[in-house]
Amino acid sequence: MKVTVDHDLCIGDAICESIAPDVFELRDDGLAWVIVETVEEDRREDMEESVDACPTDAIIIFEDDDEIDERLLASIDPQ
Ligand code: SF4
């Protein structure tokens, strides 16, 4: 699966990073970034917990066949 963060909605409270620091990273711009190109299936539970915990509904899970808007794709930035 892929996970994205809508940067128009993210308020940078780092809840997602506290749940899954291997997937989300809060950066100096005050936004959460996704630091893996794809998220392994065994991380799904934490991804769903992140979606539920995000106060602004900024996190979206996409399945492998889904089309993803370029704007959302830009939040995926592996180092
Ligand atoms: S939980 Fe949501 S609002 Fe908070 S940093 Fe993560 S994506 Fe942004």
Provide an overview of this structure.
By secondary structure, the protein is α+β, with helices and mostly antiparallel strands. The protein has one domain (2-73): Alpha-Beta Plaits (2-Layer Sandwich), CATH 3.30.70. The chain is 24% helix and 18% strand. It contains three helices and four strands, in the order E-H-E-E-H-E-H. It has helices at 15-19, 44-53, 70-73; strands at 2-5, 24-26, 32-34, 59-62. A two-stranded antiparallel ribbon has the order 1-4. A hairpin with a 5-residue loop joins strand 2 (24-26) and strand 3 (32-34). The relative contact order is 0.33. Bound molecules: iron/sulfur cluster. Iron/sulfur cluster binds at residues 5, 10-16, 24, 26, 32, 54-56, 58-59.
What's the SSE blueprint?
Blueprint: E1 2-5, H1 15-19, E2 24-26, E3 32-34, H2 44-53, E4 59-62, H3 70-73
Task: Provide keyphrases for this structure.
binds iron/sulfur cluster, 18% strand, two-stranded antiparallel sheet, 79 residues, alpha+beta
In short, what is this structure?
This protein has 79 residues and is of the alpha+beta class. It has one domain (2-73): Alpha-Beta Plaits, CATH 3.30.70. The chain has 3 helices and 4 strands.
The name of the CATH topology is Alpha-Beta Plaits
Structural class label: alpha+beta
Total count of domains? 1
Strand content: 15-25%
Distance between the termini: 18 Å
CATH class: Alpha Beta
User: How many β-strand runs?
Assistant: 4
Strand order of the largest sheet: 1-4
Low-confidence stretches: none
Q: Describe the global form.
A: globular
- The average pLDDT value, as a whole number, equals 97
Round the Cα radius of gyration to an integer and report it: 11 Å
CATH level-two architecture: 2-Layer Sandwich
Query: Can you write the helix and strand succession as a string?
Result: EHEEHEH
Which sheet architecture does the biggest sheet show? Answer: 2 strands, antiparallel
Number of helices: 3
Helix content: 10-25%
